[in-house]
Amino acid sequence: MSDIDFTLYNAPQSTCSQRVRFAMHIKELPFTEILLDLFSGDQLKPEYLSINPNGVVPALVHNKKTILDSAVILEYLEDICPKINPMRSADPVIAAEMRTMMRFIDEVPTPAIRIPSYNLAFLPHFQAMSKEEFEALADSKPLRREFLLKMGQTGFSEADMNEALSRLQRAVLRMDEWIEQHGGSWLQGNHISYADIAVMPVIVRMQDINLSYYWNNLPKVAKWLEKIQEHAAFSKTFYHGSLLTEKYPHLAKNK
Fold this sequence. Notes:
Blueprint: E1 6-10, H1 15-26, E2 32-35, H2 46-49, E3 59-62, E4 65-68, H3 70-80, H4 92-107, H5 109-112, H6 114-127, H7 131-139, H8 145-151, H9 158-182, H10 194-208, H11 219-230, H12 232-237, H13 244-247, H14 249-252
Parallel strand pairs: 1-2
Antiparallel strand pairs: 1-3, 3-4
Helix pairs in contact: 1-3, 1-10, 4-10, 7-8
């Protein structure tokens, strides 16, 4: 595949970016990585908005064609490279099950993890802004405007935090059920799938911000995390600066 050109626009700590980096490393697809500084607003600059008008990462440019949304990118990689370390079953029923898992992951834990992440790590950045600066920033966000305005400059409420943590707990319990149901090490059995990759950054983020107690009594989930962290693609994906505690040392003090 050396004649195929991949450019991945992403950010080290972006959980959606981490999904795609992991998949591309498993697929052994070389790519040019363009890192965006999200707090500097790189994702909102005209040159990036011309690539992704949603103003979020990641975006994959493949042979001058742009593919957006991390879940879509994962399946796109399988469509173009189905024989290289496949992560989607050729059986349409099993593939449909994987997509159902991914839909749950994108609806429940993926948005939920943003709330503690923002409250614990990103809030001070917004608190340093004037009210006018913060509102202007929120208004510039094509997809995240309402999310930022709900957070405000005082952070998400206790009720919002509790709801997010409840959603994360439900996701961990659902993972445990999936692993038990399929009788293997991964969510669908003995082979890693895009469902595993989709939820991976959420679980890694939970571990990083001291929420790993949610699987203290779920050894299958704990073993799943160990296994994915032992994967050759993991260290390539989570290079230094990819964890919140590596950028925000005050979080590490609580670990």
